Amino acid sequence: MTAPRPWVNPLRDANDKRLPRIAGPSGMVIFGVTGDLAYKKLLPAIYDLANRGLLPAGFTLVGFGRRQWSKQDFCDYVRGAVEKGARTTFSENVWTHLAEGIEFVTGSFDDAGFDLLRDRLAELDVARGTGSNWAYYLSVPPDFFSTICHQMQRVGMATPAEGTDAWRRVIIEKPFGHDQESARKLNAIVNAVFPESSVFRIDHYLGKETVQNILALRFANQIFEPMWNAHYIDHVQITMAEDIGLGGRAGYYDGIGAARDVIQNHLLQLLALVAMEEPSSFEPAALQAEKIKVLRATKPEYPLNKTTARGQYAAGWQGSEYVQGLREEEGFDPHSSTETYAACTLSVNSRRWAGVPFYLRTGKRLGRRVTEIALVFKHAPYQPFGEGQTEALGQNAVVIRVQPDEGVTMRFGSKVPGSTMEVRDVNMDFAYAEAFTEESPEAYERLILDALLDESSLFPTNAEVELSWSILDPILNYWAEAGQPEEYPAGTWGPRSADRMLARRGHAWRRP
Ligand code: BG6
C-alpha cells in the first residue's frame, strides 16, 4: 500500500510543475507603447495573462510616451488593443480590475519625463503594492536603448533600493545589433546599466509551444535521439516562410533584410535547439551552455556564391490575389538591395553533425505561411526491393511543424495495398489540435510571464546573440559586395539560386 499523499491544494500545489506559476507583486513600464508590437502583441498578451489569473492582484501597467494622454485615454487605447488582439474571451470584470492599474506618464526619451516616471512608480508602489518590482519593456528601435538605459540610471530607476529584495529587469526586442560588432556595443550599453541576469532579450520563437517541444521530443523519448546524428541524418532543412509582404514595415525592414530579421535570431535558435547536446538540466544556465556550445561549432559552408541565396519579391499571384513587388511597396527605396528572401548552408562542426548540411531559408511573399524543421534521413544502406518497386519512395523524414498546423510528421515508405510489392511514401502525423484540448498560450504571454517570474530559460543571452552574428557576418559581408538580389515572383518559393544551392549536393527543398 502506498502512503497517502499529504493534502495539497489541487488547484495550486507549489511543487506541481504542471501548474503555471503566478507572478509576484510587480508592474511593467512599456516604452514605445503606441507602436505596432505593443498594440498587436504586448497589450493583448498582458490582458490574456490577467484573464488566466497569472498576474498579481496589484499588477500595474505604465505606458510612457510623448502623447498628452490621460489615464482614461490610455485605458481606451489598451482596451482597443485588447478587444482586437486578445485570445481569451473578454470579461468586463477582468478588464475593470486590470484597468485600475493602468497608468500613462507623458515624456520623451531625452527629457525630464524620466524624473516624473520615477516619482510615479514610487507612488504606485505604495498605492498598488507592486513591491518596487518593475520590468521595463523597451519596445523601441535599438537606437533608443542607450538613451533610455542612461535615463533610467540617471534617475535611479534601474536599480532597486539597497538592502531590499525588490528587482528591476529590462526586456528588449530585436534587432540586437546589425552585426557582431554592433551587437557587442549594444550589449555593453545595456549591461553597463542592467546586469546580464536582469536583461531579458525577446526571441518570440522561443515562446512558441512547438519550439519548446523540440526539447521534449528529443530528450523525453527514446525513439528519436539514437538516430539524431550524422550516421542517420542526411541533411536538415529549417524553413520559415511567410506569405505576407512588407506592408507598412518598409521603414524598419529596408537595410535590415530577411537574414538579419529572421535567420540571426529565430532560425539560429531553432538550429541550436535541434543540434545541441542534452543539457544537464533545464535550468537556464545549463540550457544556454549547450546552445552556446553548438552555436560556437556552427559555421557557414563555402563558397558563399554557391552555398547561399537571396532574393527580392517581384509582383505576382499570391493565391488568387495579384500583389505588387517590393520595389513598388510604399516607402521602399526602389534601388534598395535589401533581401526579402535569404537562404544559407551551415555546418555544425561536431562529432554528432560532421558532414550534415543545415539548410536555412526564410522569405516574404512565398507560397504559403509555414515554419518547419525537417530532418531528412539517409537512404537505407541496402534496398532489397527492386527499382521499379521503390520509385515513389523518398527519404525518410521527421518534420517538426512549428506553425501554423502545429505538430510532428514522420515520413516513411509503406507497401501500397495490392498484389504487387510497391513501396510509397506515407505520413504519420501528430497534430496538436487533435491530441490536446489545452490551447497553446501565445508566445508573448509566455515570455512576459517568464520575465516577471525571473525565469530566463527562453531568453537568448548576449553570448548567443553575438555568436549568431558571428555565423551570419561573413554571409552578410559577401552579399554586401555581391550586387542586387535575384528577383522571384510573389507566391513562389523563392529565387532559383536557392534551388541550385541544394541541388549541388543532390538535395531539394521540401514543398511544405
Ligand atoms: C518577426 C519578424 O520577428 O517575426 C517579422 O521581424 C516576421 O518580419 C515575424 O513577420 C513572424 O512571426 P510569426 O510568429 O508570425 O512567425
From TrEMBL:
Q: Tell me the ranges covered by the Glucose-6-phosphate dehydrogenase NAD-binding domain, including all copies.
A: 29-213
Question: What are the catalytic residues?
Answer: H266
The alphabetized UniProt keywords are: Carbohydrate metabolism, Glucose metabolism, NADP, Oxidoreductase
Q: Name one Pfam family in it.
A: G6PD_C
Q: What catalytic activity does the UniProt entry give for this protein? A: D-glucose 6-phosphate + NADP(+) = 6-phospho-D-glucono-1,5-lactone + NADPH + H(+)
Per UniProt, where does substrate bind? H204, K208, E242, D261, K364
Which GO molecular function annotations are given, in alphabetical order? glucose-6-phosphate dehydrogenase activity; NADP binding
- UniProt GO cellular component terms: cytosol
NADP keyword on record: yes
Metabolic or biological pathway: Carbohydrate degradation; pentose phosphate pathway; D-ribulose 5-phosphate from D-glucose 6-phosphate (oxidative stage): step 1/3
Looking at the record, the residues that make up the Glucose-6-phosphate dehydrogenase C-terminal domain are 215-510
Which residues does the record give as NADP(+) binding sites?
R66, K174
Could you give a single Gene Ontology term from the biological process aspect?
A: pentose-phosphate shunt, oxidative branch
What Enzyme Commission number does this protein have?
1.1.1.49
Entry similarity comment: Belongs to the glucose-6-phosphate dehydrogenase family.
Q: What does this protein do?
A: Catalyzes the oxidation of glucose 6-phosphate to 6-phosphogluconolactone.
HAMAP family (alphabetical): G6PD
Q: What is this protein called?
A: Glucose-6-phosphate 1-dehydrogenase
Tell me the organism. Corynebacterium phoceense
